[in-house]
Amino acid sequence: MPVRALVAAGALFKLDENNVRVALARLVAAGLVERDERGRYRAGSRAGAIGRQIAGWRRLVERLRPWYGGWVAVLGDTGRATAGRSARARRFFAFRELVPGVHVRPDNLAGGVTAVREQLYALGLPGGVIVSRLEALDEQTATRARGLWDVRGLRASYRRARTTLAASARRLSRLAAADAMVESFVVGGGVIREIVLDPLLPEPLVPAAERAAVIAAMREYDRLGRACWAPFMRGFDVLPERRAPAHLRIVDEAVVA
Fold it and tell me: Is the pLDDT of residue 241 over 90?
């Protein structure tokens, strides 16, 4: 996106132009944003791992495999200097602390421990931290492990997300263009954040259909949101149809049922 588009988008959210430019400069310095040969800005190489996690929300189900009771464990992650990056990496995979220095999650993700380990390292987990499979827990410890996630709260959040998306979808067509852009960005972004940070707990712990229903609702809302932003995006020649991936194409209109 050209900087003028970022400034114009910021103005919709009451962000001062100077603040947008300062924030952009800091992101460039941190490697999270970079400029191309035309002076346009895009996500930088250091944002790659996080970007892939976020962009994959539509295909979340593809990340799952059957669970047979085993766990992925992060062992001995106690370094203070890298605590922030470690916590962020673990958070993307919803690890919970079982005992001091041992964080676990169900081993139900595609690729198993090897894939989770590689992605954790890419997200900032220090290379010296051990990521391994944990199984054959005694029944008391296994029960405690299964109870580390607030399943009731998670299922309630699924219901809230679907209600929020449905209510906003009904409002969008009645709002002024700028207001619809802001609402779709804020509401959609909030639900996408919940999807990306979903613990992806296996079927014995959480009904998979409830999570799938949220993703389906968000797919439809995403289409509506892109329609709200289409005139703005085309006005700055951002993601024109000839270059955009199919799932990212902006559309001229969307019908709300």
Answer: no
User: The domain spanning residue 105 has which CATH number?
Assistant: 3.30.70
How do beta strands 71-75 and 102-106 pair? antiparallel
Tell me the residue ranges of DSSP E strands in the chain: 33-35, 41-43, 71-75, 96-99, 102-106, 130-134
Place of tokens 């050209």: 2
Model confidence at 195: pLDDT above 90: yes
Distance, in Å, from the CA atom of 219 to the CA atom of 183, rounded to the nearest integer, reads 16
Q: Is residue 225 part of a domain?
A: yes
Shared-domain flag, residues 132 and 105? yes
Residue 25 within any structural domain of the chain: yes
Q: Are residues 142 and 157 in the same domain?
A: no
The answer as to whether 85 is a domain residue is: yes
pLDDT of residue 174: 96
Whose tokens are 């906003």? That residue is 168
Whether 55 is in a domain gets the answer no
Give, in order, the Cα–Cα distances in Å from 76 to each of 80, 129, 152, 189. 12, 6, 30, 34
Q: What is the pLDDT of residues 141-161, one digit of tens each?
A: 999 999 999 999 999 999 999
pTM, two decimal places: 0.84
pLDDT at position 253 over 70: no
Range of the structural domain that residue 32 is part of:
3-43
